[in-house]
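Tokens for chain A. Residues wanted.
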């Protein structure tokens, strides 16, 4: 195992261990039981979650969210993308007509109960064309085409 980690490190990669047995057991549990089970194993996340995060990191990807009355969506972008580039993942017209975006971090969005609470607490902000989207941002794009 140590040799594999050394080889991966020289290639700029990572090694993620996933136990099929543990993952199978986790899938049989409800959310609360799953958290207790992982805690007893000294884990914060399942092997699958760890693998997904490691893969995103290796590929230079990150996630941002959009949310509205009808749906909430997660969008995958390349790390270092600007707000207009992130908007373009949704539709090319969003990127072409980008004006600005309303932005709040995911954790702040959840803690404040959405945009209104984030605005009340001064955690909401407007960002322009040069803004580099951060992992977990919740964005609302303003555009005109």
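Reply:
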């Amino acid at each position: 195992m140590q040799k594999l980690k050394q080889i991966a490190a020289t290639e700029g990669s990572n090694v993620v261990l996933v136990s099929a047995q543990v993952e199978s057991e986790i899938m049989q549990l409800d959310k609360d039981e799953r958290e207790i089970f992982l805690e007893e194993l000294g884990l914060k996340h399942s092997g699958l979650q760890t693998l997904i995060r490691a893969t995103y990191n290796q590929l230079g990807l990150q996630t941002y969210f959009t949310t509205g009355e009808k749906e909430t969506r997660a969008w995958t972008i390349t790390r270092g993308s600007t707000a207009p580039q992130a908007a373009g993942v949704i539709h090319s017209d969003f990127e072409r007509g980008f004006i600005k975006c309303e932005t709040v971090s995911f954790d702040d969005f959840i803690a404040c109960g959405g945009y209104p609470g984030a605005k009340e607490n001064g955690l909401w902000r407007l960002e322009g064309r040069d803004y580099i989207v951060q992992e977990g941002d919740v964005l609302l794009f303003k555009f005109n085409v």
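The beta strands are 61-67, 72-78, 98-105, 125-127, 137-143. The longest strand covers residues 98-105.
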